Structure formats: C-alpha cells, structure tokens
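Re: [help] complex structure
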Amino acid sequence: MSDEEDLILSELNDEELVEQMYDDLYDGLKDELEEGVQILLDRGWAPYKVLTEALVGGMTIVGNDFRDGILFVPEVLMAAGAMKGGMAILKPLLVETGAPRAGRMVIGTVKGDIHDIGQNLVTMMMEGAGFEVKNIGINNPVESYLDAAKEFEADIIGMSALLTTTMPYMKIVIDTMKEQGLRDDYIVLVGGAPLNEEFGKAIGADAYCRDAAVAVETAKSLMARKHNQLTA
Amino acid sequence: MAQLNDDTLTRAGLEASVETGRVLLIACGALAREIIDLKESNGWDHMAITCLPAILHNSPQDIPAAVRHAVEKHRADFDQIFVVYADCGTGGQLQRVCDELGVKMVPGPHCYSFFEGNDRFAAKSDTEFTAFYLTDFLVRQFEAFVIKPLGLDRYPELRDTYFGHYEKLVYQAQTIDTALEEKARACAAQLGLAYEYRFTGYGDLETTLTGVARS
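Output below.
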C-alpha cells in the first residue's frame, strides 16, 4: 500500500492524511504515523477522534487482512509497533480530555508461559477501543491475576497461553475465583493459539477470543450485557 | 538411509514408501530421517512411512485435518496406522481426531518432549520454560521454520519482540554432528540467546515405535 514518492504529510487535507496514515500503519512506518497524529492534533482534532478514526480505523484494516490471510504476523507486529508510537502520544491527552471509557481489564499470560505477543496486541486494541488495560505480563500465577484485578478494579480478566501444556492453568485461575466467591465479579476472556471455543466453555470462561479484534467486540458485548443486568 | 531432501520434507512431506502393507506410520516431515533410521537399523520392514509437510509445525491448527485426510486416504491399504505426532500445539484436537479414527499417536506435548523423554521433559517444565528448542531437523531448516516465517529476514528489529523473554536455546541433538552443533550455536547467537547442547538421541520416539513394531 505504500507509495514510492515522498509525501509531505502536512500538505495533505484531513481526509487524505487519514488515508495516508492507514497506509503508513499498514506498512509499519512508526515515525510517519507519529507525525500524522501530531499534525491532526495540531489541526484541532480531539485525541479521541485521532485514536478512533485514524489509528483504530487503520488497525482494523490490518486486523481484517490478518484474519483473511493477506497479512502475516511480522507485518501485524510492525503495524502494532507503529500504532504503539501513535498511542504513546495520545494516551496522556486522552486522560486529560476525559475520553469515554468502555471498561477496565487486567490481562496476562498464564503461569509457565512467556509468550506475550497475542496479549500485547489485545492490550493495544482494547485501549484503542476505549478500555483501560493493566497488562501484567508473562508467567502469572493465580494470585497475580486476582490481586491485579482487585487493585485495578477490573471488569474483565483476560488470560493468554500459547502452549498446550500451559493452557490448563486457566482453569485453575477460574476455579480459584469460584472458590473465593469472585467468579461473578469479573468477565473472563481467554485466548491463545492452541485454545478453541470448546475449551473456553469447558473451563468456565465467559468467552474464547480468536484474535484481538474478536476480543474487543466480545468485551464490548459482554460489558453491555453486564451493564444491562446491573441496571435491570 | 534413503535419500531425503529437507526442503521437500518441509514443504511437501514424503509419499508412502509402499502402497500397501501391515503398518503405516503417518509422521511429521521433521521426523522422517529419524524414523527411517530406526526402521532400517531395526529391520522394521513391515512398517511403511508417509510424512506430512513439516511446516505444519508453524500452523498447528491445520495438523488435525491433515492427519485425518492422510488416515482416510491410506486406511484401506494397511492393517494398522500409527500417527507419529504428539499434541504439537493442537490443544488436544489431534488426540480427538485420532480417537475418532481409532488410531494411536505418540504421547506427549511435542517432539521436544518425546525426544528428551516425556517424563524428564515434564520434570523440567517449572525451570525451563524460558528455553527455545531446536532439533536436528529444525537446526537444518532454521531459516524456513524461524527466520522467514517470523519475518526476521525482513524485520530484524522484531527479534526481541519474539524472543525477549527466552533465555537460552537448547539444541536437542538426535545425532552427533559437529556441523549442526556449530549451526545451532550460530542460531542461538542470531536470536540473542545463550546456547546449550543436549544430546537426546531418539528418546521416547524409539521406545514408542518399538512398541508399534512389536504390536
């Protein structure tokens, strides 16, 4: 999607610039994307508008092409790196300007597992969708999830695993939540390459999420349902 | 040992060595050399082998369907079929398919585990989950299985995104080969990891296939 000729981003109108930012995000061009974010802010765009229309819009294209087998993991990671650069500019501004918040999530990879690429993508996409996310990293025992969820006042606990040998630990976390009477306090989402929907159901999670985009949609849907239950 | 080409084993696999017979081993292409060596050195002439493309290792969700297809293709021509895969990242799905088809498979989570011995590997799981493993085949095909699919040839800056939490590369050697050992050491350096050499031989693969040969 990249053009050969050099473009002066500041000379593009808003619509052209956003289109170019989609291309830059797709191509993983972090510096160019950060420049685009700054130009839109300088033009008076609200940080939330920059986030949703330029960054999330672009990352949605990346996510769709990944799902459809057009883009592969390395390209998605390069795009994510670019988006992270844009998010770093926007994050403090989003806090200042009181952008809408969709919910709070704690996410981490389970004990014995050090693979965090998936959960980092989920973190980024959830933040892009207006969730506040505390990413507790890799190799998390049950206490780490529960302590972080309590301290962060989370609505959602997300667990990730890449290995067949580590994914059963998710059930230990959920069973501990049940034992402590905490299960209904949180929405539990699980994901990772060897998992599937059947496994998610079997261990008592609220949902299995195939990828980051599905995680966002599932989280929004379950948060809306939770909100409706509370207000009913 | 029969002439084998690693690139072919990675991309295309291996056709069945005979069209009919008593026992067919349906294996991962990454195990072809080891299985054929065991077959030849033990005189297991009643066992034929066919291999699926080894690169399925990188998309384990596709392994169960590929194994199912292979079993259904060959089952009428053999008295017994044995699947020479462990779970291999399928999250139990391959076991489910094998149960459904009435065929047995190698116990354990993956080849790193059965080469080392499943019990021994499991005993190390609490302390060695920051190890990245390579076998003989994966050392030979490092570029095809690691560098290119992860995009490290195009985006070397992604190295630490993938390997930042790993601490060491363990080369599980099935054979003694100083050239492979040198290459494995270079692979570790390329990934920024400490290097450890560990001779495993064929481990549980040998004992499992011995059991199949005698059954």
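The CA atoms of residues 15 and 210 of chain B lie 22 Å apart.
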